[in-house]
Amino acid sequence: MMAREVRVQAVRFVLVLACFAWAARAQQNIDFSKIVIKTTQVSDGLYVLEGAGGNITVFAGSDGVLLVDAQYAPLHQKILDAVAKISNQPIRFLINTHWHGDHTSGNELMAKAGVVLIAHENVAKRLREGRPAAGAAPGVPPAPKDAIPVITYTDSLTLRFNGDEISVIHPEPAHTDGDSIVHFRRANVIATGDIPAAIRYGNIDIASGGSINGNIAALERFLRMGDANTRFIPGHGGPISTKKDVQEQRDMLVAVRDKVQNAIRAGKTLPEIIASKPTAEFDEKRKGAGNPDQFVTLIYNDLSRK
Length: 306
Hints:
Blueprint: H1 3-28, E1 38-43, E2 46-50, E3 56-61, E4 64-68, H2 76-86, E5 91-95, H3 101-104, H4 107-112, E6 116-120, H5 121-129, E7 151-153, E8 156-161, E9 164-169, E10 181-184, E11 189-193, H6 212-225, E12 231-234, H7 243-265, H8 270-275, H9 280-283, H10 292-303
Parallel strand pairs: 4-5, 5-6, 6-7, 11-12
Antiparallel strand pairs: 1-2, 2-3, 3-4, 8-9, 9-10, 10-11
């Protein structure tokens, strides 16, 4: 094996360890007793809950309540309390946008309360199997039986609920290989999960099948699905995004990918590429919204895979 290939393999291994450890470290470092759930109305019957972990979309109406993602299990009661302030109807469905614990660890408690869990088939598979420990990184144990989605799909699924037609769509692997886009067609709202529709540097979980090109393709799909009035609910933080934001995010990803790809083709090493600051023109706007060097490392490891 050539020296450069050895370096690439070593960096990949470190990245996989980081992906394994991320969710466990994040939950351990959160004082859930201090978390306050913030509720923002997006349109009639549609709200976003921000707390710790992924944003939760709440769709409430006469048929009941549908949630997109569940955040962390220790926030379960706070989430129920926040939903109760929106609607006195029962929570009937929960859609997971992908398998990461900050979006799914509340699944079990929701299911035990009678909520039907829905996700792409790869989410169910990864939750069922977990991940083994790797080196110093802790493993992700298989999820409890009740936390596994009971309704799964491959390409798309449609729910007619609360007077809306809700399309649950699987793009090509982007953040992970089990991503779901949730399109509330009548409301003209799209919940994107962790495909980074917001103005931030996103995380590409290569160990779960994610890719930079998949992220770009998903954002281009958002642009085809949406119009000037579409609101995009990002997987983390705010604000609610517009089509203009999505276009800007897509253009940033393409520009950084192309710079990294060209540097790889020129034989540059990862430290050399990081030092060249391929994200420099975008850093000021995304200050505090992700680490640019880590983002470049993710792209490098994705594009240098054999």
